[in-house]
Amino acid sequence: MVPLRTRDLVASSVGAVRGRVTAIAATPEANGGVSTYVTLAVDEALFGPFAPGELVLRERGGQVGARQEWAFGNPTYRVGERVLVFLAVNPDGTLRTTGMAMGKFAVRDDFGGQRVRRDFGRDVLVLAPPGGRAGADKDDLPLAALRTAIRAAAGDAAAVAVALRPRPAMAGLRLEARAEFTLLQPASRWFEPDDGLPIGFRIDVTGDATLGKLISRTAVQAGFAAWSNLESSPLTLFDAGDDQPASFAGCPDANRVVFNDPFGELDDPRDCRGTLAIGGFCNTDETRVVGGARYKRIVTGKVTFNDGWSNCAVWTPCNLAEIATHELGHTLGLGHSADGTATMAAMAHFDGRCASIEPDDRAAIETVYPIPPPPTETPTATPSPPSTTTPTRTGTVTRTPTPTLSPTRTLSPSRTLTPTRTLSPTRSATPTRTGTATATPTATATPTASASATRTATASPSASRTASGTATGTATATASPTPSATAPPAPRSWLDLAVEAVRRALGAPPGQ
Fold it and tell me: Percentage of the chain with pLDDT > 70?
């Protein structure tokens, strides 16, 4: 904001009063936002259709339960505080402070009489007025001097032509009493970047009335890029598409950038002084600790540019980009920097930097939005399957199946039995492992060592082990038995004859 002079405040207001804050209460709005009612006990009406008594302001923002809404640049009030306030009118006829923080003075006792002081707030970008410097326009002066200046300027003020509601009905509202109207918890941030998610803002399709759609949108997009192009932070802002003009007040899901103050929420500038733009956010009571600090979660970010600056030298594409970058920094939860060169400093530069950030801005965003640590992996132990040792008649073959191996034993029960023992095998081969191909060993006339460990005497059964899995390790044992020449039948002993007799008595087939 460019600070308004006393005569500008008078011209922008329907009146001014001096009094004491007696009550502050916040209420939720249907649009998801918050309004705060500030009750004043008026001791003196400086101009306008007011008189001593009670008067109520309805200010934008505040806190109800876990819901909080704030616009940087709002005036601050505390119960018991003595104030001098310039009054403007909301669209519904209720009163608010003119020019946000520019229209409220705190009254204090001092040697030689009372003094008044204007505080723009900790997160307001103050611009030097044409031909002067910011803060030099009587922000701290005797109450008597300000009273004289107000009454002199009010002599030319036009009569109020709108219906006022100096004491709105609040009986049906759900009100929460507060000790003060201020930003109660400034430590807030978005949680989306922690999960690698970008933050999108919808942009008013009408664009700035003076600079045009393309220039104004490009300025905002440049602000997005300034905060996003940091390798040391996961933060990413992007243009989420067109949006129709929307009110700054309220906390819907959509983040928004709006031009031309379409709902009259900002007072028009006077003589190129006043509010250029406002930025703010809505947060919830959900918290997260980052870098040792606890932050509330931002759920809505919003920026509204004022109208009425078309004939002012400060309203250029480059300066608009700097303003957009600064206000977007507030929607991210950043406050003002003590480094005068930073884009988030309390004083604007308008030095041709446009949408850019300085080392202090970069350090701030890296602190609030650091690269999240990689996820901690929890190893899962996979037990190795036991090895299976298959004995053979000519050696030992060891098979180690993979964990996904599902062996299936397929047996061929057909047996061709020969009741005579006529073979005398000569074992002259050593089993060897030949690779990963599945082998199906077959026993011929003489016993052959195989991975299936099929034992035969004079029979030739076929037994195979079939494995299914991602890999099958099979041992192939190759034997070359050499049968002897045909031998005469061996004589049968008494024991053979006795066994044969027992089998016949039991009804067992021969050879079993």
Answer: 70
